[in-house]
Design brief:
mainly beta, two-stranded antiparallel sheet, globular
């Protein structure tokens, strides 16, 4: 698995699709405004039109 890969898996009878943003040993921090940091560097996500806030299922 490499950074940027897309993975899909079943969880609680749902298919979840996720993008790999970090590897083992990396630190991920998500601020309240939705900004994501990996190892202290802002994750550049130009493909997003808006940030997600709060809980997601």
């Amino acid at each position: 698995m490499e950074l940027g890969d897309i993975i899909a898996f079943y969880y609680n009878n749902k298919i979840l699709v996720k993008r790999v943003i970090a590897k083992p040993g990396d630190w991920v921090n998500i601020l309240e405004d939705g900004t994501v940091y990996v190892n202290g560097t802002v994750l550049v996500e130009p493909y997003l039109s808006e940030k997600a806030f709060g809980e997601a299922d």
